[in-house]
């Protein structure tokens, strides 16, 4: 994707649209490409993010493959947004059907929404992945375009509307795993994903864009977190099953079987990226539980395929800075 990054240096930004009160116009073009999955490439991806052996595809792999199409979409001549300087602030993935990697996958990418943000505009890029004419996968990447537009209120004025209610629900955190983000994590993931954004490659190139050192790809961090959660949950299911007699295991097949389904059977992922992960770093992955699980219950009722939900938080082991907040539904 060096070509796309080179083009981004010369892309014209429509500042008039970005500075006005109403949302900018979104191009209507749909970018499409049919992909034939390379098993060796998928194997390298799984090894990099430590995806445990599973018949199910890692829920972020297809979105990673769609990145060149996303960049072409953002570079559309009618797009008012810059490519360089965009902040990947959120992500949502829905897996509708099992994806057969031996069959071609048709990817369709387009702009889907834009809305005001306290720091500018937040724009969504939608990916639909189809096999046999049927949509098997959907992903939405949300990017922040920072701009001082007329709809952006000063921070002091915004803080007046922040709730000061201290009666938050009790939160319990359970350690899931730790994650090492080495100094070369950005370069390794770039070699697999093709995302050679300079902010991920070295301290020298990252400093040119205002970062004190290189930062990890948000999708690398999220992919590793999903892998570790799946691996951890599968281990718990195996321990639980092995600790029972054959008769009892059959009686408890429902609960243990549901847990085992998490071994790659992730149906939905939603994530908000909070702070960049500076490299190198040591991260801690927590599972969060509140006194109320209304949102998870609602999600389960809405999607009959979802049986369980997990809320995850990733922080730096050194300073406890929160880097991302994610929900997994499986």
Radius of gyration: 21 Å
> Numbering strands along the chain, what is their spatial order in the largest sheet?
1-3-4-5-2-7-10-9-8-6
Helix segment tally = 12
Q: Any idea what the shape is?
A: globular
Instruction: Tell how many strands the DSSP assignment holds.
Output: 10
Beta-strand content: 25-35%
> Could you name the ranges where pLDDT drops below 50 across 5 or more consecutive residues?
156-168, 245-260, 291-301
Termini distance?
Answer: 33 Å
Average predicted confidence as pLDDT = 82
Q: Can you summarize the main beta sheet?
A: 10 strands, antiparallel
| Helix and strand pattern | HHEHHHEEEEHEHHHHHEEHEE
Structural class: alpha+beta
The share of residues in helices is 25-40%
Can you give a write-up of this model?
This protein has a ten-stranded antiparallel sheet. Helix 9 runs antiparallel to helix 11 (253-260). Mean pLDDT is 82; it is low at 156-168, 245-260 and 291-301. Helix content is 32%, strand content 29%. It has 330 residues and is of the alpha+beta class. A hairpin with a 2-residue loop joins strand 4 (120-131) and strand 5. The protein has helices at residues 2-10, 15-19, 39-49, 61-65, 67-74, 155-159, 185-193, 203-207, 218-242, 246-251, 253-260, 294-302, and strands spanning 31-35, 87-95, 105-117, 120-131, 134-146, 171-181, 268-273, 281-290, 309-316, 322-329. The chain has twelve helices and ten strands.
């Amino acid at each position: 994707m060096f070509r796309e990054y080179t083009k981004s240096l010369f892309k014209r930004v429509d500042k008039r649209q970005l500075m006005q009160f109403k949302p900018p116009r979104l191009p209507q073009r749909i970018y499409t490409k049919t992909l034939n999955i390379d098993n060796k490439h998928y194997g390298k991806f799984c090894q990099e993010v430590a995806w445990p052996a599973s018949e199910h595809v890692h829920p972020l792999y297809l979105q990673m493959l769609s990145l060149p199409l996303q960049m072409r979409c953002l570079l559309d001549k009618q797009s008012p947004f810059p490519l360089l300087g965009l902040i990947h602030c959120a992500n949502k993935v829905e897996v509708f059907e099992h994806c057969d990697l031996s069959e071609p996958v048709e990817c369709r990418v387009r702009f889907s929404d834009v809305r005001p943000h306290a720091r500018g505009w937040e724009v969504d890029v939608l990916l639909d992945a189809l096999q046999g004419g049927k949509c098997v996968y959907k992903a939405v990447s949300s990017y922040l375009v920072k701009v001082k537009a007329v709809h952006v209120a000063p921070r002091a004025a915004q803080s007046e509307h922040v709730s000061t209610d201290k009666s938050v629900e009790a939160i319990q955190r359970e350690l899931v795993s730790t994650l090492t983000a080495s100094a070369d994590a950005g370069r390794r993931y770039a070699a697999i994903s093709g995302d050679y954004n300079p902010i991920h490659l070295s301290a020298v190139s990252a400093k040119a864009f205002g970062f004190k050192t290189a930062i990890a790809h948000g999708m690398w961090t999220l992919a590793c977190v999903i892998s570790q959660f799946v691996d951890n949950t599968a281990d718990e299911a195996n321990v639980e099953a092995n600790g029972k007699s054959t008769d009892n295991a059959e009686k408890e097949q429902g609960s243990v079987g549901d847990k085992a389904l998490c071994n790659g059977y992730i149906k939905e992922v939603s994530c908000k990226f909070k702070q960049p992960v500076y490299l190198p770093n040591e991260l801690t992955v927590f599972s969060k539980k509140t006194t109320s699980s209304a949102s998870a219950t609602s999600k389960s009722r809405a999607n009959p395929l979802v049986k369980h939900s997990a809320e995850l938080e990733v922080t730096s082991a050194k300073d406890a800075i929160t880097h991302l907040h994610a929900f997994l539904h499986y």
